[in-house]
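Bug report

Summary: C-alpha cells for Twin-arginine translocation pathway signal protein differ between web form and batch submission.
Environment: batch mode, default settings.
Steps: 1) Submit the sequence below via batch. 2) Compare with the web form result.

Sequence submitted:
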Amino acid sequence: MTTRRSTLKLLAAGSLPAMLAMPAARAQQPLLRQLAIVVAFPAGGATDAVARLVADGLRGKYAETVIVENRVGGGGRIGAVHVKNAPADGSVMLFGPAFPMAIFPHIYKTLPYDPLTDFVPVATTSKGAFALSVGPAVPASVRSMADFVAWTKANPDKATFGAPPGGGQHFAGALFAKQAGIPLQMVPYKGGAPSVVDVLGGHIASVVTPLPEVLQHVKDGKLRMLATTTERRSPFTPEVPTMKELGWDVVFQDWSGFLAPARTPADVVARANAAIKEAVASPKVAAALQAQGTDVDINSPADFARLHRQTWERYRDVVRSTGFKAED
C-alpha cells in the first residue's frame, strides 16, 4: 500500500519516477530472438511470396530474426505437423492457405493433426481466389470458357488441369468440371508454382491456381485467364468473368493466415496479431500484396477462429457435393 509517508520517502530517494515507469516497461516486451515462419509449399509460389513480404515487416518489430522455412510434402501436412509439435511460445508459426486446415479433415480418413484443436488462429493476412488459365497446349483460338468447354469435349485425352491434390484449386476445378459436364482430369502437383511451370511449357492444358501465381504471365501474354472463382469480378482482372456469372456455382475465395501451436498463451497470440496487422497494413507490404493480385484481409484472433470453423464446415459440404471419397 502506497501512503503519503512512503511516497515522500520515495521522492526523497529519487525512486518515484522509476516506480511510475514500471508499468510501461512491462508493456514493452522484448523482441523474440527468432521467429520461424513455416510455409508448407515450395519457394516461388504465392504462399511463399506473401510469407516473405510479411516476414520483412515483422523483422525488428516482433523478433530480431525472422526466417521462412519451406517444409514441403504431404500437400501441406508435413509443415502443419512440424508447427503442431513446435514450442508454444510464439517463436514458430504456420503460414498458409485454408485448405490443409479446412479440406483435409474431409478427404483423409486419418490426419496427423486436428485443425481445430492443435492450432490457435493468430491472424489472417489476405483472401485470395483462383483462376482457370490455359497455356500453349490449348489452341490460341480458345479465348473463353465456352471455347474451353467445347475444346475439352473434343479433346478428352488432352483435357487436364494442374493443382495440388486436396486443395481448394483441386475442388474448384473438380466442381467446375462436374457442373460443366466435361472430362477435365486433374494432374497433381506439390504446389502452384510447379503446375504453372508445366502449363507454360505446354505439358498440361490448364491450371487452377491463385491469381498471383499467373497474373504476370497473363499480362505477358503467355497464359490466357478464362475465369476466376471470385463472387464478383476481381479488381485485378476486371476483364475476366467469374465462373458464377457464367452459370457455374464455383465460388472459392479463402483466407491465408498465421496459426500457432495450441496452448500458445493468449497474450503472445495478441502480440503476434498486432505485429502481423502492422506489417500487413504498412504501405510497402500492402502495395506489394495488391501488386500480386492479393486482397488484404486482416482479422483478430477471435474473428479468425470463427472464420476458420466456418471454412471447415463449408468445405465439408463442397467435398460431399463432388462425390470425392476420403483417402488413407
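Above is the batch result. After comparison, the two runs are identical; trailing whitespace caused the diff. The domain at 129-228 is CATH 3.40.190.10 (D-Maltodextrin-Binding Protein; domain 2). Confidence is low (pLDDT under 50) at residues 1-27.
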